[in-house]
Amino acid sequence: MKRAAHTATDRSRSFGTGPRKTLYNLPPLELECMKALWSLGEASVKEIREQLAAARRLFAYTTIETIMNRLASKGAVERRKVGRAHRYTPVYQRTDAREQAVSAVVHHFFDGSRRALAAHLGGVTPPAETRPRTAAPPPPRAERPASAEPVVPLERPIDTSLL
């Protein structure tokens, strides 16, 4: 059986063929660069790096350059050459990315109900979630056997500023 040979060039041809359909699933550093770019409107790598440094996020020039090139290949930003540097402009605005992120959360965690999300954020439990459980609740903490897995709370709250 013959294996198909795939190269980096083959992958790059299918990658970045148009604007990215969603921004909510960008890796954290790419999202931080997008947030800096949204606040600046249009910027060079140097300006984005300075914006991140002002927020006490220090990165090498080449790191930000790589991230911005990735964002350009994904279609999230437009890049144009000005002199020896590139200038980047966001393809999507912050409100578009936020709407995509909220829609994804509503779809995946709240069965498409924005009201359920609003109730959750307001600390209200929707009636569907107040029904009695079919399984018995776990025994109180003191009665749990020693072999039971301990419940570990999250070390830090979920960062919703990226939404």
Offer a concise description of the structure.
This protein has 163 residues and is mostly helical. Helix content is 41%, strand content 9%.
What features would you describe in this structure?
With 163 residues, this protein is mainly α. Among the domains are: 27-92, Orthogonal Bundle (Arc Repressor Mutant, subunit A), CATH 1.10.10; 93-127, no CATH class. It has 6 helices and 3 strands. The chain has helices spanning 8-14, 28-40, 45-54, 61-73, 94-109, 114-121; strands at 43-44, 77-82, 85-90. It has a 3-stranded antiparallel sheet. A hairpin with a 2-residue loop joins strand 2 (77-82) and strand 3. The longest helix has 16 residues, at 94-109. The protein is elongated, with a radius of gyration of 22 Å.
List key phrases describing it.
163 residues; mainly alpha; Arc Repressor Mutant, subunit A; 3-stranded antiparallel sheet; 6 helices; elongated; disordered N terminus
Distance between the termini: 47 Å
What is the N-to-C order of secondary-structure elements (H for helix, E for strand)? HHEHHEEHH
Number of helices: 6
Mean pLDDT: 76
What class do helices, strands and sheet pairing give?
mainly alpha
Q: Unreliable runs, pLDDT <50, ≥5 residues?
A: 3-17
Write down the Rg. 22 Å
CATH class of the domain at 27-92: Mainly Alpha
User: What is the H level of CATH, i.e. the homologous superfamily of the domain at 27-92?
Assistant: Winged helix-like DNA-binding domain superfamily/Winged helix DNA-binding domain
In terms of topology, how is this protein built?
Layout: H1 8-14, H2 28-40, E1 43-44, H3 45-54, H4 61-73, E2 77-82, E3 85-90, H5 94-109, H6 114-121
Helix pairs in contact: 2-3, 3-4
